[in-house]
Amino acid sequence: MKARLPLLALALVAVALVVAPLGLQRYGTYILTLWLVTSIAAMGVNLIVGYAGQETLAQAAFLGIGAYTTALLTGAGVPFGLAFLASGALAFCVGILIGFPALRVRKHYLAFVTLAFTVLVWLVIRNEQWLTGGVMGMNVRRPGLGEINLRNHQNFYWFVLAITAALSFALWWIVRSPWGRAFTALRENALRAESLGVDVRLYTLLAFAIGCAYGGFAGALFAPLVGFIDPAPFALAPSLLFLLMVVVGGAGSFAGPFVGAAVAVLLPEWLRFAQGHYLIIYALLVIVMMAFCPSGIVGLVRRLVALRPKPSTADAPAAPAKEAA
Amino acid sequence: MGEFIQLVVTGLTTGAIYALAAIGFTLLWQTSQTINFAQGEFVMLPAFFALAAMNVLGLPFSLAALVAIALSVLVLGVVFKTVVVDPLIRQGVLPLVISTIAVALLLKDGVKEVYSAEAQPFPSFVPDTVVTVLGTPVSLSQLGVLAVALAVIAALQGFLGGTRTGRQMQATAQNPTVARILGVPVERMVMYTFVINATLAAVASLLISPIYLAKFSNGEHLGLAAFVAAIVGGFNQVRGAIAGGLLVGVVDNLAAAYVSAAYRQAVPLALLVLIILFRPQGLLGRREERAV
Q: Domain-by-domain residue ranges, chain B?
């Protein structure tokens, strides 16, 4: 019973996600698709932050790498599937290249190197007009998929949903595999993990590079979703927001990135009346949340569920509450 | 040659200001494990305190500058420590890092919404006349900025090395547990560090704003320069932050003139990567600790 409940919930969520666009207007479907794309990038950040215990301030830059790779390749006539894979692969390789020197040094250096890298990528996108169109941006065509017309927003949503599901499953498998358990060992106690034969540096580097690849995949979907890309969404501020949304959702929990992405995508919609103040409200929210519940919204929900008195296990709630915290 | 000397002087001027920000950043990191990702915004904000004091309260610039420093000590020093850092350090380093990033967003968008999104002209305390030194025209205001920045750094070094409180602060930074055993009031020393950081940020802000204009988004560039300066110099040394700051300033200016104005920002970043690859402890830093 206990094992079936999450599966049932998962199935319900899956069904709800599949039928969701049927009741929505074009804009609603667009927001929902944007949420999925954001979630993919956030999953990558979660692997880096929540599982490998590092900080990345470059996810928007990897999103940009993926978006421009896909835009340039599909523009040159390469099929979308290939462009999508190339985007992830390129992000993975770049991740290895910048992660390798940074992880040699000490904790928090990756944060500074990724910070510098984000600025660098943004400069390249802005300055190399012959390649990226600079601040004028470039148009991206939506791919076709055999007989299916992806220009239709509902079809494109289902297409993105399928890819999100596949990538979620892949990440779930990575985290559950012996290989992924090494990540958890790392986060819990790096010193002990190392003494048990886990090559800490290699695993951290791989976690970082895979996280970057997820950023690249998300970018490959982002470009055809919005149809027009310019340097703005790949600057430093969006990279910071990616890190914040994962922590707000719940770093280190599987659902965390989805919840965090939902907050990050929907909050500006709900707070439209507040105009520019939304970032101020969001920042305050993050600080309060970090002070009282650093395990994020998912952690908060877990804590509330554990605190709810159950008739059969009246004396139990105290212990799980502590665990969830 | 004259152009080169001018560029170096300009570089040293901005570099000395970067050094102020970098010193505060290293002091905080050392004494309280606070990696302040809002350091750039800390340098951006005090200029707006001064502008508000001048334009809203009608104070003269000299008084407004004092008001800006006092407000910075209060907001960026005392309030930042008691409201943000103290409750969060108990949750661990990651939540604190995340919160300083949130503080950076908060300050940036706060200034944009409350004051203005436009770059504001900012008065300079030294008139912008050009004098000729050894046949090279040099701006007097730049020399003034350089002199003030270096004087502040010298005063800080004198305080840290020459007074009882300064030595207690150093002891706290090196090993808080032993410092406490030896009777150092560690909590008070940590508070002093936050106050010093806020003061340095305020001075840096008043010095840089006439050059760059006061703008809400200045923090991005200033913060990055401070991080690079601290790491390049060797973040466990105050003199490392000074050397790093000056170096980044000079490299930044020379690169803008001789390499490419469009990629000016990229050159300090290249410097950062080179240092991390070949001398990870920084130019003047000591080797320490493990990597992960």
A: 2-278
